[in-house]
Amino acid sequence: MSGRRHRGVSIVTPTLREAECLPALAARIDAVLSPAGIPWELIVSDDDSRDGTAAAAAELARSLPVRLRVRRGAAPDLSQAVLDGIDAARFDQVVVIDADLSHPPEAIPRLLKAIEGGRCIAVGSRYAAGGRVAGPWSLYRTLNSRVATLLARPLVRCSDPMSGFFALHRRFVPKRSELRPIGYKIGLELMVRGRLPVREVPIAFRDRRRGESKLNWRRRLDFLRHLHRLYGFRFGLAARLANFGVVGLSGLVIDTAFYLGLQWAGAGHLLARFLSFWPAVTWNWRLNRLLTFGDRPRAARARQWTRFSIASVAGLAANFGAYAALTGLVDLFARHRLAALFAGVVIGSALNFALATRFVYRR
Ligand code: GDD
Ligand code: MN
Question: CA-CA distance, 207 to 149, in Å (whole number)?
Answer without folding.
Answer: 17
